[in-house]
Amino acid sequence: MQQAGLKLTHFTFGSVLKACSSVAAQEQGKQIHGRVIKTGFESDVYVGSAIVDMYAKCGSLEDALTMFYNMPDQNVVTWNAMIAGIFQVADVESCPKYGEQALSIFRLMQRRGMKPNHFTFSSILGVCSSLAFLENGKQIHVHIIKSNFELDEFVGSALVDLYAKCGEVEDAHRWFYKMPKQDIVSWTTMIAGYAQNGHGEDALKLFRQVLREGMKPDQFTLSSILGASASIAAEEQGKQVHTHTIKVGFESLVVVGNALIGMYAKCGSVDDACTMFGGMPKRDVVSWTVLISGYAQHGRGKEALRIFGQMQEEGIKPNHITFVGVLYACSHVGLVDEGCRYFDSMTRDHGIEPKIEHYACVVDLLGRAGRLDEAEQFINEMKLESDAVVWRALLGASRIHGNMDIGKRAAKRVIELEPHTSGTYVLLSNIYASSGMWDDATKVRNMMKDKGVKKEPGLSWIEVRKAFHSFAVGDRSHPQTASIYAKLESLMEEIKEAGYVPNTNFALHDVEQDQKETSLAHHSEKLAIAFGLISTSHGMPIKVIKNLRVCGDCHSASKFISRVSRREIVLRDGNRFHHFKDGSCSCGDYW
Q1: What Å distances lie between residue 473 and 142, 477, 523, 528, CA to CA?
Q2: Which tens digits make up the pLDDT trace of 453-510?
Q3: N or C: which end of the chain has fewer CB within 10 A?
Q4: End-to-end CA distance of the chain
Q5: Cα diameter, the chain
Q6: Which residues contact 219 (CB under 8 A, 6 or more apart)?
Q7: What average pLDDT does range 206-216 have in this prediction?
Q8: What span, in angstroms and rounded, lies between the C-alpha atoms of 328 and 278?
């Protein structure tokens, strides 16, 4: 066109810049920008907006912001291009300054009297969702209502996403059903919201409703429902979804494959996860990271590190989540020196600055190995300000190794940072109780009552024939209670004959010995195992999930039960998986 001597117009530049944006051709876009300056079109609002959009979509947010602020005039397209660019390109979770920038731009837009449209609102709500800025999101919601965009399907989906990601599931549910029309995006958003907030069963119900209404789930719907299945270890449900992905031809898609790896790993079938990984035609960093994390959760640390080595050999760059899996793997098999080397290599070899979760992993790594003084020193010398997660890792290690002094210091710090988290008080109380310091244990429990902190109840559940059965300690609400307790009583007799001795240090009440043993026998995981034994065919593994860490006595009893019943027992607790078989556990009693 230029060679033919034809005159370039603002429409020509805008169209060419749009083409550069669509294929992220930044170098060509820069050349066009240079030509725009020479021809005097840079001040044209249409061309300027296209330049902002080009830089934003090519990932050059600083250049986009510079262009944006230097424009003499902006229209709603310009503002949308900048806000949407930040939302779509910036990792606002890792770099919150860009999220703050987007909010500042949105406020400036309002002050200048520009009217946001549905695209503006959905983009800025996306920023609030990513940063869990609930209050900002609520303020924008009020503005949406005043602007009559509340019933727009794009804005409605963004509102559902905001409330779900901020943990306000009831609000997300309410706005979802207020939408005049729900498309597959809004259904997927609601399913993902349920899954992310511990409402896996609700997510599965919603997915069944999607199918009943004749809607076609896309790859993101399927990956979300697989995540929901994984969250509650609903393997049978997950397998059905897997079958559906094959029927519709989505199994080979990377996002679906990654979700399938995660589903099988979190449902206790890490070998199936490995098979799924091996069959993927294409993998990304998430694929490798999910498998590494899966092996780590199952206590197969050396296999996790082997996969990590293979990942690097294939030229895949690890990210910060990959290193959480690697450090976790080292922690749960006692590879202390290796773990410390991997931590040091993050910055040195990979240019990844450790985040608070990596520091917590190192504290856990040192603490599990009994190196509590080193762990405490490591916290005090951290580059980042320590948070409750880091101190809680030290507190947990103090509980394992019975270190009263460090445990008290760690508990004090956690309570200062998170005064309403029940687990801290329970751990400290348990440290006192296991040492026979009943008065101190009672004081901690009373402190909880005074502050209105309620203990999270220990629950165990098991999936049998696609139905979930949940148990609390001493639970007698199940229709088969008589059979469950009869089986449990016979099991206790059998394993005692085989050498099991109840560890009453885990009966954390100051009562007589026989009462302690009875209390231990009726722990929720033992009830779930007993139910599994009477409800499934011989030879089938028993898979139990517990929301809290399994107690030492239940761990010991499960080993004996696996021997006398000749059944494999897979127990997923709040930290990891335990595979009990023939009287042994996969953790090697290092947990």
Answers
A1: 45, 11, 5, 10
A2: 888 888 999 999 888 999 999 999 999 999 999 999 999 999 999 999 988 766 544 4
A3: N
A4: 70
A5: 99
A6: 250, 253, 255, 256
A7: 92
A8: 23
**In this predicted model, what pLDDT tens digit does every residue of 397-441 receive, in sequence order?**
998 888 989 999 999 999 999 998 888 888 888 788 777 787 888
User: In the numeric block, which tokens belong to residue 12?
Assistant: 């020509």
All residues at 6 or more sequence positions from 110 whose CB lies less than 8 Å from its CB, including other chains = 116, 143
Q: Are 80 and 56 in contact (CB under 8 A)?
A: no
10-17 long-range contacts (CB < 8 A, ≥24 apart) are 10/41, 10/44, 10/46, 10/47, 11/46, 13/39, 13/41, 13/44, 13/47, 13/50, 14/46, 14/47, 14/49, 14/50, 17/47, 17/50, 17/51, 17/53, 17/54
| Cβ contacts of 108 within 8 Å, gap of 6 or more | none
- The mean pLDDT of the chain is 89
Over 383-396, what HEC string results? CCCCCHHHHHHHHH
Interval 196-210 mean pLDDT: 93
Q: pLDDT per residue over 294-340, tens digit each?
A: 999 999 999 999 999 999 999 999 999 999 999 999 999 999 999 99
The position carrying tokens 């199940």 is: 478
Give the percent of the chain with pLDDT over 90: 62
CA dihedral 463, 468, 472, 476 (to 10 degrees): -110
Q: What is the pLDDT confidence band of residue 100, given thresholds at 50, 70 and 90?
A: confident
Q: Which helix (H) or strand (E) holds 580?
A: strand 577-581
SS (H, E, C) 303-344: HHHHHHHHHHHCCCCCCHHHHHHHHHHHHHHCCHHHHHHHHH
- Please state the pTM of the whole predicted model: 0.83
Spatial strand order of the sheet with 569-572 comes to 467-472, 459-464, 542-546, 569-572, 577-581, 584-585
Asked if 396 and 428 touch (Cβ cutoff 8 Å), the reply is: no
pLDDT in tens, 278-297: 999 999 999 999 999 999 99
**For residue 544, what are the contacts with CB-CB under 8 A and spacing of at least 6?**
460, 461, 462, 525, 528, 529, 532, 569, 570, 571, 572
pLDDT of 337 reads: 96
DSSP 409-474: HHHHHHHHH-TT-HHHHHHHHHHHHHTT-HHHHHHHHHHHHHTTPPPPPPEEEEEETTEEEEEETT
Alpha carbon distance 63, 332 (integer Å) = 45
How far apart, in whole angstroms, are the C-alpha atoms of residue 52 and residue 56?
Answer: 6
Q: How far apart are CA 86 and CA 156, in angstroms?
A: 20
